[in-house]
Amino acid sequence: MTFAVSSTDFHYEANNKAHHTSEITGQRLILRRGQAFTITLNLHRGSQPEVDKVQLIAETGPSPSEASGTRAVFRVSGPPVRSSWSAAVQNSSSSSVTLSVTSPANASIGKYFLKIQAAKGIPQTSALGEFILLFNPWCADDSVHMQKDNEKQEYVMNEQGLLYRGCAESFSPSGWNFGQFEEDIVDICLKLLDVSPNYSKNPGQDCSRRSDPTYVGRVVSAMVNCNDDRGILLGHWGNDYPGGTPPSRWTGSVEILRQWSLNGCRPVKYGQCWVYAAVMCTVMRCLGIPTRVITNFDSAHDTDGNLTIDEYYSVSGQELKLSNDSIWNFHVWVESWMARPDLPAGYDGWQVLDPTPQEKSEGVYCCGPAPVKAILEGDTDIKYDVPFVFAEVNADKVRWVVGSDGSKQKSYSNTRLVGCNISTKAVGANEREDVTHLYKYPEGSKTERDAFARAVRKRNGISDITPNGLDARKPPASGVIELSIKLQKTPVNGEDITFYLHIVNRNQSSKNLSITTVAQALRHNGRPEDPCWKNTQTIKIGANRETKVTLLVPYSKYGASMIENDIVKLTAVANKEGSNEMHMTVKDVLVTNPTLSIEVKGTPVLHQEFKAEITFTNTLSETLRNCLLSLSGIGLIRTKHEIPILTLGPNKMLRVTIPFTPTKPGSRMLTADFDCNLFRNVKAFKTVEVKRVY
């Protein structure tokens, strides 16, 4: 009797453990490319274990072909062959044959079918089973190879992390559950690739190109937003979120991905930049590409590509919407680790990918991968989208005051205000790592200014340029008025914002100044709301003198604007009486909300119920209404707990105990969120270590 297979043992648990996918499941085969796996072929009684007379077939995609690299036919021959599929006998008996099968390190990722057929004569093909193949950062020949184990643990294996939000002078982390190893997430991520326009246009070519992390990164960047396709998230920046979830309420990616998949790939409402980036991080880590979330404070959105951000203000201090350029309080994207063989040497490593739909790249709302090294050096001729990302971290800023007759006067030019405190979670710790130095040289240094000049030159194809902007380290010129805003204490939601204007007259004569100060709630994308408070007064300041003017923005004026915003822009404009001379200062102020806390008593043990206690105190002078408290955690809570609270009076404490039963061991994160009618951005996280009991 010829070689005939009765069944196949794919050794799910052993293979998945060796391939770092056992966190996903032990019930099916999920592999990483470039690494051997073991299968045992159980033979029919009387069958001859002559493996040299059979060959294996591995196929992926709807129309697999050897020419496109989506079909491989290979004999059981011996040791692995680099850049091709191979198989070798490990053990053989009269009833079974155990094989070691190795995929090439440049194989396309995706779902594969494994078959067997006779090597000679009329081919009779039998199906052995299926498996999923992912990128492999543990394999030295894989283009996503990452050398350090602790970095692979953080950027591939860690199912939770921190996202940084706020403004450049005051920001804080919030917890996020990535959940890339929840069992259904790998299927949803592959589904995401299958519903992309690239797949619809040419499935065979798309599956073939899935061997390249650069290509996969661009596809995922486009598919996380829904602007061109059947992507995951619909973006919305405003105060109302009809028929959906406010972006600030999300605490993890799994709920979003499942909702998208279960609803027929219809977009989930709603996302903003940190939600887009966190979901993309989940997808990329799930597919095996090391990825981390990056926050850039004072992030420029340069719509005209001139690497300069222009802002316009009225003589009364109100920011005017005369330019599509903007500076976001913060913007969030991801970096993914990969080689870039499509570029000249020197651009391997971290690559910026941004799924937030801002500008089109080659006709599609996606961004990157842009090598971080190219951004640092100002190499804006390198693909993809380096000029746009360079501007986000290093554009020059010019501020204009618009007169009542429409005339524009340059108030201020600065090279240092864009791209501050660029942040990510540190490896192996719930701490912040500052990565600003990877994106830009020290502000104002010759190296940084040279990089800016190079960026403009390469962007515009010109031979030489003198960078715009003033060096902010130079002392102020004599004969000017200086304005600055200083807070008297940290602003707290529910309390008045108290601050003072510091005014310095460096002229040799006294000045009469008309000073207008305006407060505007600021959306995180840099777009201001209408003014909620305004103050105008006239002062006389002596020659070479300085003075302070104390001011107060009442809570009754700004409070209604804080539902979706937590930043107030304070702008002061000083007009010299009898002249067109104007001076301006601006300060973005983060208004902090009441705090939420999580406590876990004792040590959580796998599969044993524990309790988390959440506390929140309403420090405002008015009753909170329509409150919603939620708690979630990958490997801790199967379904998010949501508890509605109708009202919470002034100075009242809310204390809620929620049970949870850990399903995964190791370091896990509980994340809590509190929303109400007056504010939404109240979060807490708690890391717990789940122990096994043997």
Could you name the key traits of this structure?
16% helix, six-stranded antiparallel beta sheet, 13 helices, alpha+beta, 37 strands, five-stranded mixed beta sheet, 694 residues
Overview of this protein structure:
There is one protein chain. Helices cover 16% and strands 39% of the residues. The protein has 694 residues and is of the alpha+beta class. The longest helix is centred in the middle third of the chain and has 15 residues, at 273-287. The radius of gyration is 29 Å and the shape is elongated. It starts with a strand and ends with a strand. Mean pLDDT is 91; it is low at 463-478.
Give the helix/strand class: alpha+beta
Mean pLDDT across the residues is: 91
**Helix content percent band:** 10-25%
Shape: elongated
The number of distinct β-strands equals 37
The fraction of residues assigned to DSSP E strands is 35-45%
Measured between the Cα atoms of the first and last residue, the distance is 48 Å
Task: Please give the largest β-sheet.
Answer: 6 strands, antiparallel
Q: How many helices does DSSP assign?
A: 13
Question: Could you give the topology of this structure?
Answer:
Layout lengths: L4 E5 L2 H7 L11 E3 L3 E8 L10 E7 L10 E5 L10 E7 L3 E7 L7 E9 L7 E9 L14 H9 L2 E8 L2 E8 L7 H10 L2 H5 L1 H7 L3 H12 L8 E3 L18 H9 L5 E4 L1 H15 L3 E11 L6 E7 L4 E2 L5 E13 L10 E5 L16 E2 H6 L8 H9 L1 E7 L5 E7 L5 E6 L6 E3 L1 H4 L6 H15 L20 E7 L9 E9 L5 E12 L5 E14 L3 E9 L1 H4 L8 E10 L5 E9 L5 E5 L9 E8 L6 E9 L8 E8 L4 E8 L5 E10 L6 E9 L4
Parallel strand pairs: 2-9, 12-13, 15-20
Antiparallel strand pairs: 1-3, 3-7, 4-5, 4-8, 6-7, 8-9, 10-11, 14-17, 14-22, 15-16, 17-18, 18-19, 20-21, 22-23, 24-25, 25-28, 26-27, 26-29, 29-30, 31-32, 32-35, 33-34, 33-36, 36-37
